[in-house]
Amino acid sequence: MTLWTAAEAAAATGGRTQGGWAVTGLSIDTRTLEAGDMFVALKAARDGHDFVAQALEKGAGAALVSRIPEGVPADAPLLIVDDVQAGLEALGRASRARSQAKVVAVTGSVGKTSTKEMLARMLSDQGRTHAAVASYNNHWGVPLTLARMPRETEFAVIEIGMNHPGEIAPLALQARPHVAMVTTVAAVHLEAFEDVEGIAREKAAIMQGLEPGGVAVLNADIAEAQVLRDAASDLGAAARWFGGSAGDYTLHSASIKGEETVARATAGGRAVELHIQSLGAHFAMNALGALACAEALGADPARAVESLALWSPVKGRGVRETIRLDSGEVTLLDDSYNANPTSMAAALAVLAATPGAGRRIAYAGDMKELGPQEAELHAGLADLEAVEGIDKIHCIGPLMQALHDALPEGKRGGWYHSSTEAVPGLAGEIKGGDIVLAKGSLSMGLAKIVDGIREMGHSGRK
Protein backbone atom coordinates (compact mmCIF):
# COMPACT_ATOMS: atom_id res chain seq x y z
CA MET A 1 0.00 0.00 0.00
CA THR A 2 1.36 3.41 -0.96
CA LEU A 3 2.72 5.46 1.93
CA TRP A 4 3.97 8.50 0.01
CA THR A 5 3.68 9.59 -3.61
CA ALA A 6 6.29 11.89 -5.09
CA ALA A 7 3.80 14.76 -5.18
CA GLU A 8 2.77 14.28 -1.54
CA ALA A 9 6.35 14.06 -0.32
CA ALA A 10 7.36 17.15 -2.27
CA ALA A 11 4.41 19.11 -0.87
CA ALA A 12 5.25 18.01 2.67
CA THR A 13 8.93 18.91 2.49
CA GLY A 14 9.09 21.74 -0.02
CA GLY A 15 11.59 19.64 -1.96
CA ARG A 16 11.77 18.77 -5.64
CA THR A 17 11.30 15.32 -7.07
CA GLN A 18 12.69 13.31 -9.93
CA GLY A 19 10.25 10.85 -11.43
CA GLY A 20 6.68 9.99 -10.59
CA TRP A 21 7.49 7.43 -7.93
CA ALA A 22 5.54 6.09 -4.95
CA VAL A 23 6.96 4.36 -1.87
CA THR A 24 5.53 1.88 0.61
CA GLY A 25 7.88 2.50 3.55
CA LEU A 26 10.93 4.39 4.81
CA SER A 27 14.39 3.09 5.69
CA ILE A 28 17.59 4.60 7.03
CA ASP A 29 19.66 1.41 6.70
CA THR A 30 20.39 -0.47 3.48
CA ARG A 31 20.85 -3.67 5.49
CA THR A 32 17.16 -3.73 6.45
CA LEU A 33 15.75 -1.84 3.47
CA GLU A 34 12.84 -3.52 1.69
CA ALA A 35 11.87 -3.11 -1.94
CA GLY A 36 9.64 -0.08 -2.34
CA ASP A 37 11.08 1.83 0.63
CA MET A 38 12.26 5.42 0.48
CA PHE A 39 15.88 5.47 1.61
CA VAL A 40 16.57 8.43 3.90
CA ALA A 41 20.21 9.55 3.51
CA LEU A 42 20.82 10.80 7.04
CA LYS A 43 24.26 11.86 8.21
CA ALA A 44 25.32 9.91 11.30
CA ALA A 45 28.49 7.89 11.76
CA ARG A 46 28.50 7.73 7.95
CA ASP A 47 26.91 9.98 5.36
CA GLY A 48 23.83 8.21 4.05
CA HIS A 49 24.45 9.69 0.60
CA ASP A 50 27.29 7.16 0.26
CA PHE A 51 24.69 4.36 0.29
CA VAL A 52 22.03 5.78 -2.04
CA ALA A 53 23.25 3.86 -5.08
CA GLN A 54 23.24 0.63 -3.08
CA ALA A 55 19.73 1.36 -1.78
CA LEU A 56 18.40 1.91 -5.30
CA GLU A 57 20.06 -1.30 -6.49
CA LYS A 58 18.27 -3.15 -3.65
CA GLY A 59 14.93 -1.88 -4.89
CA ALA A 60 14.36 1.38 -3.02
CA GLY A 61 11.42 3.24 -4.55
CA ALA A 62 13.14 6.59 -4.00
CA ALA A 63 15.75 8.30 -1.86
CA LEU A 64 15.52 11.43 0.29
CA VAL A 65 18.73 13.39 -0.33
CA SER A 66 20.19 16.89 -0.22
CA ARG A 67 22.28 16.32 -3.36
CA ILE A 68 22.60 13.79 -6.15
CA PRO A 69 25.30 11.41 -4.93
CA GLU A 70 28.15 10.23 -7.07
CA GLY A 71 27.30 7.08 -9.01
CA VAL A 72 23.55 7.73 -8.95
CA PRO A 73 21.87 8.23 -12.36
CA ALA A 74 20.73 11.77 -13.05
CA ASP A 75 17.16 10.53 -13.54
CA ALA A 76 17.05 8.37 -10.37
CA PRO A 77 13.86 8.58 -8.28
CA LEU A 78 14.80 11.20 -5.70
CA LEU A 79 13.30 13.71 -3.32
CA ILE A 80 15.85 16.51 -3.06
CA VAL A 81 15.69 18.85 -0.06
CA ASP A 82 18.01 21.38 1.55
CA ASP A 83 18.55 19.22 4.65
CA VAL A 84 17.69 15.53 5.00
CA GLN A 85 16.99 15.64 8.75
CA ALA A 86 14.63 18.59 8.29
CA GLY A 87 13.01 16.80 5.36
CA LEU A 88 12.39 13.71 7.48
CA GLU A 89 10.86 15.87 10.21
CA ALA A 90 8.60 17.54 7.65
CA LEU A 91 7.39 14.14 6.44
CA GLY A 92 6.71 13.16 10.03
CA ARG A 93 4.68 16.30 10.71
CA ALA A 94 2.70 15.88 7.50
CA SER A 95 1.97 12.26 8.31
CA ARG A 96 0.76 13.21 11.77
CA ALA A 97 -1.39 16.03 10.34
CA ARG A 98 -3.17 13.78 7.84
CA SER A 99 -3.77 10.99 10.35
CA GLN A 100 -6.95 10.40 12.31
CA ALA A 101 -5.10 8.09 14.72
CA LYS A 102 -5.30 8.41 18.47
CA VAL A 103 -1.70 8.90 19.57
CA VAL A 104 0.02 8.04 22.84
CA ALA A 105 3.61 9.11 23.56
CA VAL A 106 5.75 7.42 26.22
CA THR A 107 8.84 8.71 27.98
CA GLY A 108 10.63 7.92 31.24
CA SER A 109 14.05 7.13 32.65
CA VAL A 110 13.29 3.41 32.67
CA GLY A 111 10.74 1.22 30.92
CA LYS A 112 9.95 3.28 27.82
CA THR A 113 10.44 0.51 25.29
CA SER A 114 8.72 -2.28 27.23
CA THR A 115 5.77 0.02 28.01
CA LYS A 116 5.56 1.04 24.35
CA GLU A 117 5.48 -2.64 23.39
CA MET A 118 2.82 -3.42 26.02
CA LEU A 119 0.67 -0.60 24.69
CA ALA A 120 1.09 -1.75 21.12
CA ARG A 121 -0.02 -5.25 22.14
CA MET A 122 -3.00 -3.92 24.12
CA LEU A 123 -4.20 -1.67 21.30
CA SER A 124 -3.51 -3.92 18.31
CA ASP A 125 -6.52 -6.10 19.13
CA GLN A 126 -8.79 -3.04 19.10
CA GLY A 127 -7.68 -1.19 15.97
CA ARG A 128 -4.95 -0.82 13.37
CA THR A 129 -1.91 0.06 15.49
CA HIS A 130 1.41 1.61 14.51
CA ALA A 131 4.36 1.77 16.92
CA ALA A 132 8.01 2.68 16.96
CA VAL A 133 10.35 -0.22 16.25
CA ALA A 134 13.20 -1.03 18.63
CA SER A 135 14.15 2.08 20.61
CA TYR A 136 13.57 4.63 17.85
CA ASN A 137 13.00 7.51 20.26
CA ASN A 138 15.48 10.25 19.34
CA HIS A 139 15.72 13.19 16.92
CA TRP A 140 15.50 10.91 13.89
CA GLY A 141 13.63 7.97 15.45
CA VAL A 142 10.48 9.95 16.30
CA PRO A 143 10.02 11.63 12.89
CA LEU A 144 10.87 8.34 11.17
CA THR A 145 8.16 6.57 13.17
CA LEU A 146 5.65 9.29 12.32
CA ALA A 147 6.58 9.37 8.63
CA ARG A 148 6.14 5.57 8.47
CA MET A 149 2.61 5.73 9.90
CA PRO A 150 0.07 4.21 7.47
CA ARG A 151 -2.90 6.41 6.58
CA GLU A 152 -5.39 3.91 8.02
CA THR A 153 -3.73 3.81 11.48
CA GLU A 154 -6.23 4.01 14.35
CA PHE A 155 -3.77 3.93 17.28
CA ALA A 156 -0.15 5.10 17.28
CA VAL A 157 2.41 4.53 20.04
CA ILE A 158 5.42 6.87 19.98
CA GLU A 159 8.46 6.45 22.23
CA ILE A 160 10.37 9.62 23.17
CA GLY A 161 13.79 9.64 24.84
CA MET A 162 16.52 12.13 25.67
CA ASN A 163 20.16 12.49 26.66
CA HIS A 164 20.31 16.25 27.23
CA PRO A 165 18.00 19.09 28.29
CA GLY A 166 15.64 20.45 25.66
CA GLU A 167 15.24 17.29 23.58
CA ILE A 168 11.79 16.04 24.59
CA ALA A 169 9.54 19.05 23.91
CA PRO A 170 10.37 19.33 20.17
CA LEU A 171 9.76 15.62 19.68
CA ALA A 172 6.49 15.76 21.63
CA LEU A 173 5.34 18.70 19.49
CA GLN A 174 5.99 16.58 16.40
CA ALA A 175 4.05 13.62 17.82
CA ARG A 176 1.12 15.72 19.14
CA PRO A 177 -0.15 12.93 21.41
CA HIS A 178 -3.63 12.69 22.85
CA VAL A 179 -2.10 10.87 25.83
CA ALA A 180 1.41 11.32 27.24
CA MET A 181 2.94 8.94 29.80
CA VAL A 182 5.94 9.28 32.09
CA THR A 183 6.93 5.80 33.28
CA THR A 184 9.33 6.96 35.99
CA VAL A 185 12.12 9.43 36.77
CA ALA A 186 15.51 8.15 37.91
CA ALA A 187 19.21 8.96 38.11
CA VAL A 188 19.96 8.54 34.41
CA HIS A 189 22.01 10.93 32.21
CA LEU A 190 23.12 12.77 35.34
CA GLU A 191 26.21 13.98 33.53
CA ALA A 192 23.90 16.29 31.54
CA PHE A 193 21.66 17.40 34.43
CA GLU A 194 22.32 18.99 37.82
CA ASP A 195 20.01 16.60 39.67
CA VAL A 196 17.11 14.17 39.30
CA GLU A 197 14.61 17.02 39.61
CA GLY A 198 16.10 18.43 36.41
CA ILE A 199 15.49 15.09 34.73
CA ALA A 200 11.89 15.19 35.97
CA ARG A 201 11.36 18.62 34.41
CA GLU A 202 12.72 17.35 31.10
CA LYS A 203 10.46 14.27 31.20
CA ALA A 204 7.49 16.51 32.06
CA ALA A 205 8.13 18.42 28.84
CA ILE A 206 6.38 15.61 26.96
CA MET A 207 3.13 17.23 28.09
CA GLN A 208 3.94 20.31 26.00
CA GLY A 209 2.98 18.31 22.92
CA LEU A 210 -0.44 17.21 24.16
CA GLU A 211 -3.40 17.92 21.93
CA PRO A 212 -6.18 20.10 23.43
CA GLY A 213 -8.02 18.03 26.02
CA GLY A 214 -5.09 15.65 26.25
CA VAL A 215 -4.38 13.39 29.21
CA ALA A 216 -1.11 12.93 31.10
CA VAL A 217 -0.54 9.50 32.71
CA LEU A 218 1.96 9.96 35.52
CA ASN A 219 3.79 7.89 38.14
CA ALA A 220 2.57 8.77 41.62
CA ASP A 221 5.26 6.84 43.47
CA ILE A 222 8.36 8.78 42.49
CA ALA A 223 9.93 11.43 44.70
CA GLU A 224 9.61 13.97 41.87
CA ALA A 225 5.86 13.47 41.39
CA GLN A 226 5.21 17.08 42.40
CA VAL A 227 7.34 18.28 39.47
CA LEU A 228 5.08 16.33 37.11
CA ARG A 229 1.98 17.56 38.93
CA ASP A 230 3.05 21.18 38.59
CA ALA A 231 3.84 20.78 34.91
CA ALA A 232 0.45 19.21 34.21
CA SER A 233 -1.26 22.02 36.09
CA ASP A 234 0.69 24.74 34.28
CA LEU A 235 -0.19 23.22 30.90
CA GLY A 236 -3.82 22.56 31.78
CA ALA A 237 -3.46 18.85 31.16
CA ALA A 238 -5.77 16.35 32.84
CA ALA A 239 -3.65 13.96 34.92
CA ARG A 240 -4.28 10.31 35.69
CA TRP A 241 -1.94 8.77 38.24
CA PHE A 242 -0.72 5.19 38.57
CA GLY A 243 1.23 3.44 41.33
CA GLY A 244 0.92 2.10 44.85
CA SER A 245 0.08 5.56 46.20
CA ALA A 246 -2.16 6.59 43.29
CA GLY A 247 -5.87 7.13 43.63
CA ASP A 248 -6.71 6.54 39.95
CA TYR A 249 -4.84 3.37 38.99
CA THR A 250 -3.65 1.76 42.20
CA LEU A 251 -1.18 -1.12 42.36
CA HIS A 252 -1.99 -3.27 45.41
CA SER A 253 0.45 -6.15 44.92
CA ALA A 254 2.79 -7.75 42.42
CA SER A 255 4.25 -11.21 42.80
CA ILE A 256 6.16 -13.70 40.69
CA LYS A 257 4.16 -16.85 40.02
CA GLY A 258 5.95 -19.40 37.89
CA GLU A 259 7.03 -17.64 34.73
CA GLU A 260 4.87 -14.54 35.02
CA THR A 261 4.25 -11.54 37.22
CA VAL A 262 0.72 -11.28 38.60
CA ALA A 263 -0.45 -7.87 39.78
CA ARG A 264 -3.62 -6.91 41.57
CA ALA A 265 -4.78 -3.37 41.10
CA THR A 266 -7.72 -1.01 41.04
CA ALA A 267 -8.21 0.74 37.71
CA GLY A 268 -10.77 3.50 37.54
CA GLY A 269 -12.63 2.01 40.47
CA ARG A 270 -12.58 -1.56 39.11
CA ALA A 271 -10.56 -4.44 40.51
CA VAL A 272 -8.23 -5.92 37.88
CA GLU A 273 -5.65 -8.69 37.78
CA LEU A 274 -2.78 -8.22 35.36
CA HIS A 275 -0.78 -11.15 34.01
CA ILE A 276 2.60 -10.13 32.57
CA GLN A 277 4.92 -12.56 30.81
CA SER A 278 8.04 -11.07 32.35
CA LEU A 279 9.31 -11.05 35.89
CA GLY A 280 9.38 -8.01 38.15
CA ALA A 281 7.23 -5.49 39.99
CA HIS A 282 8.51 -2.76 37.66
CA PHE A 283 6.77 -4.49 34.77
CA ALA A 284 3.56 -4.49 36.80
CA MET A 285 3.86 -0.74 37.37
CA ASN A 286 4.41 -0.03 33.70
CA ALA A 287 1.57 -2.35 32.70
CA LEU A 288 -0.81 -0.48 34.99
CA GLY A 289 0.29 2.83 33.48
CA ALA A 290 -0.17 1.38 30.00
CA LEU A 291 -3.69 0.31 30.94
CA ALA A 292 -4.42 3.89 32.03
CA CYS A 293 -3.15 5.12 28.65
CA ALA A 294 -5.24 2.61 26.71
CA GLU A 295 -8.39 3.60 28.56
CA ALA A 296 -7.64 7.31 28.06
CA LEU A 297 -7.40 6.63 24.32
CA GLY A 298 -10.88 5.10 24.39
CA ALA A 299 -9.84 1.45 24.23
CA ASP A 300 -11.81 -1.21 26.08
CA PRO A 301 -9.87 -1.79 29.33
CA ALA A 302 -11.07 -5.38 29.81
CA ARG A 303 -9.86 -6.36 26.34
CA ALA A 304 -6.61 -4.49 26.96
CA VAL A 305 -5.98 -6.62 30.07
CA GLU A 306 -6.59 -9.78 28.05
CA SER A 307 -4.18 -8.63 25.33
CA LEU A 308 -1.53 -7.71 27.90
CA ALA A 309 -1.34 -11.35 28.98
CA LEU A 310 -0.13 -12.20 25.44
CA TRP A 311 2.72 -9.68 25.47
CA SER A 312 6.31 -10.88 25.88
CA PRO A 313 9.49 -8.78 26.26
CA VAL A 314 11.86 -8.10 23.40
CA LYS A 315 15.40 -9.44 23.19
CA GLY A 316 17.70 -8.06 25.87
CA ARG A 317 14.91 -6.55 27.96
CA GLY A 318 13.99 -9.18 30.49
CA VAL A 319 13.60 -12.22 28.24
CA ARG A 320 13.76 -15.48 30.19
CA GLU A 321 15.30 -18.58 28.64
CA THR A 322 16.11 -22.13 29.63
CA ILE A 323 19.57 -23.38 28.70
CA ARG A 324 19.95 -27.15 28.85
CA LEU A 325 23.34 -28.33 30.05
CA ASP A 326 24.57 -31.85 30.77
CA SER A 327 24.39 -30.96 34.47
CA GLY A 328 20.80 -29.68 34.27
CA GLU A 329 18.86 -26.61 33.20
CA VAL A 330 20.07 -23.02 33.64
CA THR A 331 17.55 -20.19 33.78
CA LEU A 332 18.91 -17.17 31.92
CA LEU A 333 17.50 -13.68 32.49
CA ASP A 334 18.61 -11.62 29.49
CA ASP A 335 18.35 -7.95 30.50
CA SER A 336 21.48 -6.97 28.63
CA TYR A 337 20.18 -4.07 26.56
CA ASN A 338 20.73 -1.24 29.03
CA ALA A 339 21.17 -0.35 32.71
CA ASN A 340 20.93 2.44 35.23
CA PRO A 341 20.68 2.30 39.04
CA THR A 342 16.90 1.97 39.04
CA SER A 343 16.67 -0.75 36.40
CA MET A 344 19.67 -2.59 37.86
CA ALA A 345 18.01 -2.65 41.29
CA ALA A 346 14.81 -3.96 39.71
CA ALA A 347 16.67 -6.67 37.79
CA LEU A 348 18.57 -7.82 40.89
CA ALA A 349 15.26 -7.98 42.77
CA VAL A 350 13.84 -10.17 40.01
CA LEU A 351 16.87 -12.46 40.17
CA ALA A 352 16.56 -12.81 43.94
CA ALA A 353 12.84 -13.56 43.71
CA THR A 354 12.92 -15.99 40.78
CA PRO A 355 11.79 -19.41 42.01
CA GLY A 356 14.28 -22.25 41.86
CA ALA A 357 16.47 -24.42 44.05
CA GLY A 358 19.78 -23.45 42.43
CA ARG A 359 22.18 -20.56 42.90
CA ARG A 360 21.39 -17.02 41.80
CA ILE A 361 24.24 -15.44 39.87
CA ALA A 362 24.50 -11.96 38.35
CA TYR A 363 26.80 -10.59 35.68
CA ALA A 364 26.59 -6.83 36.19
CA GLY A 365 28.15 -4.37 33.74
CA ASP A 366 28.97 -0.68 34.05
CA MET A 367 26.09 1.80 34.16
CA LYS A 368 27.02 4.80 32.00
CA GLU A 369 26.22 8.54 31.98
CA LEU A 370 25.90 8.90 35.76
CA GLY A 371 28.21 11.89 36.16
CA PRO A 372 30.24 12.65 39.30
CA GLN A 373 28.23 10.20 41.42
CA GLU A 374 29.06 7.19 39.25
CA ALA A 375 31.35 5.40 41.74
CA GLU A 376 28.94 5.98 44.62
CA LEU A 377 25.95 4.75 42.60
CA HIS A 378 27.77 1.58 41.57
CA ALA A 379 29.00 0.82 45.09
CA GLY A 380 25.53 1.52 46.48
CA LEU A 381 24.12 -1.53 44.72
CA ALA A 382 25.83 -3.65 47.39
CA ASP A 383 23.40 -2.26 49.98
CA LEU A 384 20.27 -3.41 48.12
CA GLU A 385 18.07 -5.87 49.99
CA ALA A 386 18.02 -8.08 46.90
CA VAL A 387 21.75 -8.77 47.24
CA GLU A 388 20.96 -10.92 50.30
CA GLY A 389 19.13 -13.32 48.01
CA ILE A 390 21.91 -13.54 45.40
CA ASP A 391 24.77 -16.01 45.70
CA LYS A 392 27.39 -14.40 43.47
CA ILE A 393 27.75 -11.12 41.56
CA HIS A 394 30.38 -10.93 38.82
CA CYS A 395 31.32 -7.36 37.92
CA ILE A 396 32.25 -6.18 34.44
CA GLY A 397 33.86 -2.85 33.60
CA PRO A 398 35.96 -0.16 35.29
CA LEU A 399 32.99 1.42 37.06
CA MET A 400 31.80 -1.91 38.45
CA GLN A 401 35.10 -2.17 40.32
CA ALA A 402 33.35 -0.01 42.94
CA LEU A 403 30.59 -2.58 43.39
CA HIS A 404 33.09 -5.43 43.43
CA ASP A 405 34.99 -3.76 46.27
CA ALA A 406 31.78 -3.02 48.22
CA LEU A 407 30.28 -6.52 48.04
CA PRO A 408 30.56 -8.92 50.97
CA GLU A 409 33.39 -11.33 50.28
CA GLY A 410 31.07 -14.32 50.08
CA LYS A 411 29.03 -12.73 47.29
CA ARG A 412 31.96 -11.28 45.39
CA GLY A 413 32.48 -12.98 42.06
CA GLY A 414 35.09 -12.11 39.50
CA TRP A 415 35.90 -8.67 38.18
CA TYR A 416 36.53 -8.33 34.46
CA HIS A 417 37.52 -5.32 32.44
CA SER A 418 35.13 -6.32 29.64
CA SER A 419 32.45 -8.86 28.75
CA THR A 420 34.90 -10.47 26.33
CA GLU A 421 37.24 -11.26 29.23
CA ALA A 422 34.41 -12.85 31.22
CA VAL A 423 33.15 -15.21 28.51
CA PRO A 424 35.92 -17.89 28.73
CA GLY A 425 35.17 -18.48 32.42
CA LEU A 426 31.41 -18.98 32.05
CA ALA A 427 31.59 -22.77 31.79
CA GLY A 428 33.48 -22.97 35.07
CA GLU A 429 31.13 -20.58 36.90
CA ILE A 430 27.71 -21.84 35.81
CA LYS A 431 26.10 -25.23 36.32
CA GLY A 432 22.71 -26.86 36.06
CA GLY A 433 20.06 -25.39 38.36
CA ASP A 434 21.58 -21.89 38.39
CA ILE A 435 19.55 -18.76 37.67
CA VAL A 436 21.74 -16.23 35.86
CA LEU A 437 21.14 -12.53 35.17
CA ALA A 438 23.09 -10.48 32.62
CA LYS A 439 22.62 -6.71 32.79
CA GLY A 440 24.65 -3.63 31.93
CA SER A 441 24.73 -0.56 29.71
CA LEU A 442 24.55 -1.43 26.02
CA SER A 443 28.15 -0.35 25.35
CA MET A 444 29.38 -2.94 27.87
CA GLY A 445 28.29 -5.77 25.55
CA LEU A 446 26.57 -8.01 28.12
CA ALA A 447 24.93 -9.67 25.11
CA LYS A 448 28.27 -11.51 24.77
CA ILE A 449 27.64 -13.06 28.19
CA VAL A 450 24.14 -14.05 27.10
CA ASP A 451 25.42 -15.59 23.87
CA GLY A 452 28.22 -17.36 25.74
CA ILE A 453 25.74 -19.01 28.10
CA ARG A 454 23.49 -19.98 25.20
CA GLU A 455 26.44 -21.63 23.49
CA MET A 456 26.96 -23.82 26.55
CA GLY A 457 23.81 -25.74 25.76
CA HIS A 458 20.57 -25.87 23.81
CA SER A 459 18.34 -22.88 24.39
CA GLY A 460 14.58 -23.01 24.84
CA ARG A 461 13.20 -19.49 24.94
CA LYS A 462 10.25 -18.91 27.21
Automatic annotation (TrEMBL):
> Do you know which Pfam families this protein is assigned to?
Mur_ligase, Mur_ligase_C, Mur_ligase_M
**From the UniProt record, which GO molecular function terms apply?**
ATP binding; UDP-N-acetylmuramoyl-tripeptide-D-alanyl-D-alanine ligase activity; UDP-N-acetylmuramoylalanyl-D-glutamyl-2,6-diaminopimelate-D-alanyl-D-alanine ligase activity
Q: Which residues form the Mur ligase N-terminal catalytic domain?
A: 23-91
Q: Which residues bind ATP?
A: G108, S109, V110, G111, K112, T113, S114
Record's catalysed reaction(s): D-alanyl-D-alanine + UDP-N-acetyl-alpha-D-muramoyl-L-alanyl-gamma-D-glutamyl-meso-2,6-diaminopimelate + ATP = UDP-N-acetyl-alpha-D-muramoyl-L-alanyl-gamma-D-glutamyl-meso-2,6-diaminopimeloyl-D-alanyl-D-alanine + ADP + phosphate + H(+)
Localization (cell): Cytoplasm
What superkingdom heads the lineage? Bacteria
Residues forming the Mur ligase central domain are 106-294
Q: Which UniProt keywords apply?
A: ATP-binding, Cell cycle, Cell division, Cell shape, Cell wall biogenesis/degradation, Cytoplasm, Ligase, Nucleotide-binding, Peptidoglycan synthesis
Official protein name in the record:
UDP-N-acetylmuramoyl-tripeptide--D-alanyl-D-alanine ligase
Give the source species: Leisingera methylohalidivorans DSM 14336
Q: Encoded by which gene?
A: murF
